[in-house]
């Protein structure tokens, strides 16, 4: 239990509406909200949120979706929406845990965190493993390429047409899945650990392009790198908050407050700050985005 207490004090020092958690291992040493011997959560998840005063969220530190401020606080489009909804539900704070995309769903189902709030785009395989809220963010996808786009990359079809092309992706990310679903061979996929490494892979010639949401690439744009227009041969993407399958009541309550938030100027202000459109998020449903193959 001591490791959990230490982690919590470190978290609270950051202050503000959202605090950055120490590494995930700090939460594994002891959790007072699981059944002895099973590790399964006890009681209502929302009740636990209210009792402890916060919800643990998984993030990726990929602006503008998620971002860690210099003071350790967590922000970004999705954490800001999640924090606003939870506040309406009587939960005053979120605590972020940085984790790779491919670890988010396993970690959620293992109760290492309670919500995924990282812009983890909905698609069939993910919607079969977790419960999503209604959409909070809708995005487009692009390539980061050398200035002038020498390989004339405009979409996934162009990648499939040239076996010599190498495309950098974040393992477990939507883009990784989109390439694999389209039949792009693993030999053409370059796995990188973070956004900056993807840009550097293009600069160094280890990859011909870095595949990521348009707004994320715009945030990473640097000299010698060009961001293509939105790719048209990948389906519309978007995300909501991700919850465990067992938390159906929590998702229903969350959706109710999310719907109320979407009807206010606050929702548009939150998303607009990060370059997203509130109207775009209101224009699609969970069912539509969960139908995306992959």
From TrEMBL:
Family matches, as Gene3D superfamilies: Periplasmic binding protein-like II
InterPro entries: Ectoine_EhuB (IPR014337), Solute-binding_3/MltF_N (IPR001638), TAT_signal (IPR006311)
GO biological process, one term: ectoine transmembrane transport
Alphabetized SMART domains for the sequence: PBPb
Keywords of this entry: Signal
Solute-binding protein family 3/N-terminal domain: residues covered: 54-278
GO molecular function: ectoine binding
NCBIfam families: ectoine_ehuB
Protein name per Swiss-Prot or TrEMBL: Ectoine/hydroxyectoine ABC transporter substrate-binding protein EhuB
Lineage of source species: Bacteria, Bacillati, Actinomycetota, Actinomycetes, Pseudonocardiales
Gene: ehuB
């Amino acid at each position: 239990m001591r490791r959990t207490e230490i982690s919590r004090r470190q978290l609270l020092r950051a202050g503000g509406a959202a605090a950055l958690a120490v590494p995930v291992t700090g939460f594994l040493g002891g959790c007072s909200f699981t059944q002895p011997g099973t590790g399964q959560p006890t009681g209502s998840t929302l009740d636990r949120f209210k009792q402890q005063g916060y919800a643990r969220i998984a993030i990726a530190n990929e602006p503008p979706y998620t971002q860690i401020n210099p003071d350790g606080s967590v922000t970004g489009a999705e954490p800001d929406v999640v924090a606003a909804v939870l506040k309406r539900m009587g939960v005053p704070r979120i605590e972020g845990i940085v984790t790779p995309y491919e670890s988010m769903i396993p970690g959620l189902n293992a109760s290492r965190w309670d919500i995924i709030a990282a812009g983890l785009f909905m698609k069939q395989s993910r919607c079969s493993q977790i419960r999503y809220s209604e959409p909070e963010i809708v995005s487009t996808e692009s390539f980061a390429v050398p200035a002038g786009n020498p390989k004339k990359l405009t979409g996934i079809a162009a990648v499939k047409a040239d076996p010599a092309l190498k495309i950098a992706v974040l393992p477990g990310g939507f883009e990784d899945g989109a390439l694999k679903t389209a039949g792009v061979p693993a030999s053409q996929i370059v796995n990188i650990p973070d956004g900056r490494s993807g840009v550097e892979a293009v600069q160094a010639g280890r990859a011909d392009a870095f595949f990521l949401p348009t707004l994320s690439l715009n945030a990473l744009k640097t000299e010698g790198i060009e961001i293509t227009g939105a790719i048209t041969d990948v389906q519309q993407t978007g995300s909501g908050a991700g919850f465990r399958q067992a938390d159906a009541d929590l998702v229903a309550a969350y959706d109710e407050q999310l719907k109320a938030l979407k009807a206010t100027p606050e929702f548009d202000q939150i998303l607009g700050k990060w370059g997203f459109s509130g109207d775009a998020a209101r224009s699609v449903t969970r069912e539509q985005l969960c139908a995306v193959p992959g």
